[in-house]
Inverse folding.
């Protein structure tokens, strides 16, 4: 064991041997809570907050919000269900759309209260003035906006009625020398009488990357928006297996490489 | 003599709770700023597990890495989400009863250990992935392959990243040690 290993071990602070076993009775409480709220996404997947009702007149399109830091590990749901006006190909965002989505995302992230006791948010305050849109993915009335600034990267999924989910995390390392690096993989839970989910993915791309496509477990291909060393895409539905999504990257020379998306994280 | 009947299959969630609950509490205490936050994490993880018992690995060796993988995502959620639905940790503390007094407060421990603070400062400068990989192996005793399971990485990828992460940690520690040696002494 090296000196660094020893120091690292010493920084653990707590030894399992010194801890009590968990009380048998608490598992009953956990089961009760899970049974009382089965759809709230315990799903190993963190949920997006804050939740704001996302209502549409058309049946089958919904949502309020939940966010996740990683692709979700839930059975089933590998084929994007129909969501009105969503498309596998992104639209070219107009400057006005970009500005509006960036402003809405900044406001949504700024409104998100820092939770008492959550050390991460205290150490990484959201700084609205420092935010700039890294990439904005637009598909019909839907937008996935990625903002960077102040050492963090935040994202907002927006629908026709505004932002429905937000998340923020530390800004990852810079752009990779080649290919792509995932920075945010998540799932938004939507609920308005019927649960719907949206899977989001974004990250950095090398300077010579001209196209990024996500190949979903069912074989469907979602083309990502690529802008200035960033890429982003989202698709309806839960992504059941975080290793089952592949990312297909095309560089300027026409060379295509395909990788498991999770391996680029 | 009657023939022995095979034991009925156990409840995977209960098995997980009984066999790995204490390890999960340790995981939480080593990563959370305070005891309350750690108990919240443990309780939230088991709510997640209770919602998805079908996800608990059948393979016993895979259960602890999987549980830490769930904990990692749940912790990210607790740290990133701004609305928590309930303070289940308080219920867990109540169920622990007098034994809750035996759950150390990481904040107090850290305050008393200068080198641990420096190591954690160095860890904080690493990426989330590097930090978790290093600590899953060093603190939770997982093998690199087990850490790969927890993080959803290929084993080979985890080994390469672990090597690089150790190098980054060593470099960061050396820099902090040097800065400390050259820093002017504090005056009261």
């Amino acid at each position: 064991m090296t000196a660094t290993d020893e120091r690292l071990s010493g920084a653990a602070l707590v030894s399992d041997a010194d801890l009590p076993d968990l009380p048998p009775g608490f598992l009953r409480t956990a089961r009760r809570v899970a049974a009382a709220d089965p759809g709230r996404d315990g799903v190993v997947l963190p949920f997006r907050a804050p939740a704001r009702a996302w209502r549409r007149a058309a049946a089958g399109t919904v949502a309020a919000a939940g966010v996740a830091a990683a692709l979700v590990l839930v059975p089933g749901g590998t084929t994007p269900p129909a969501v009105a006006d969503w498309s596998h190909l992104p639209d070219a965002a107009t400057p006005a759309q970009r500005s509006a989505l960036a402003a809405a995302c900044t406001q949504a992230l700024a409104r998100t209260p820092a939770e008492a006791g959550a050390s991460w948010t205290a150490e990484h305050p959201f700084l609205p003035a420092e935010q700039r849109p890294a990439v904005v993915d637009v598909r019909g009335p839907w937008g996935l906006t990625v903002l960077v600034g102040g050492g963090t990267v935040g994202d907002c999924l927006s629908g026709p009625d505004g932002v429905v989910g937000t998340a923020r995390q530390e800004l990852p390392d810079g752009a990779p020398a080649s290919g792509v690096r995932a920075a945010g993989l998540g799932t938004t839970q939507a609920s308005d009488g019927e649960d719907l989910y949206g899977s989001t993915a974004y990250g950095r791309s090398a300077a010579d990357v001209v196209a990024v496509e996500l190949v979903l477990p069912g074989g469907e291909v979602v083309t990502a928006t690529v802008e200035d060393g960033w890429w982003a895409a989202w698709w309806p539905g839960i992504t059941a297996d975080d290793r089952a999504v592949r990312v297909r990257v095309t560089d300027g020379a026409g060379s295509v490489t395909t990788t498991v998306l999770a391996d680029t994280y | 003599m009657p023939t022995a009947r095979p034991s009925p299959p156990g409840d995977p969630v209960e098995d997980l709770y009984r066999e790995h609950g204490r390890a999960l509490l340790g995981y939480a205490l080593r990563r959370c700023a305070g005891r309350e936050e750690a108990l919240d994490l443990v309780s939230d993880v088991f709510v997640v597990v209770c919602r998805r018992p079908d996800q608990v690995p059948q393979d016993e060796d895979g259960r602890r890495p999987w549980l830490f993988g769930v904990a990692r995502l749940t912790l990210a959620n607790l740290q990133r989400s701004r609305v928590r639905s309930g303070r289940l940790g308080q219920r867990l503390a109540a169920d622990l009863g007098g034994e809750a007094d035996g759950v150390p407060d990481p904040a107090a421990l850290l305050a008393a250990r200068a080198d641990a603070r420096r190591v954690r400062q160095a860890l904080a400068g690493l990426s989330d992935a590097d930090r978790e990989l290093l600590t899953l192996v060093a603190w939770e005793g997982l093998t690199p392959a087990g850490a790969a399971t927890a993080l959803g990485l290929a084993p080979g990828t985890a080994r390469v990243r672990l090597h690089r992460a150790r190098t980054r940690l060593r470099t960061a520690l050396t820099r902090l040690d040097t800065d400390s040696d050259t820093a002017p002494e504090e005056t009261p």
Notes: The mean pLDDT of chain A is 75. The CA atoms of residues 97 and 155 of chain A lie 16 Å apart. Chain A touches chain B through 70 residues (CB under 8 Å).
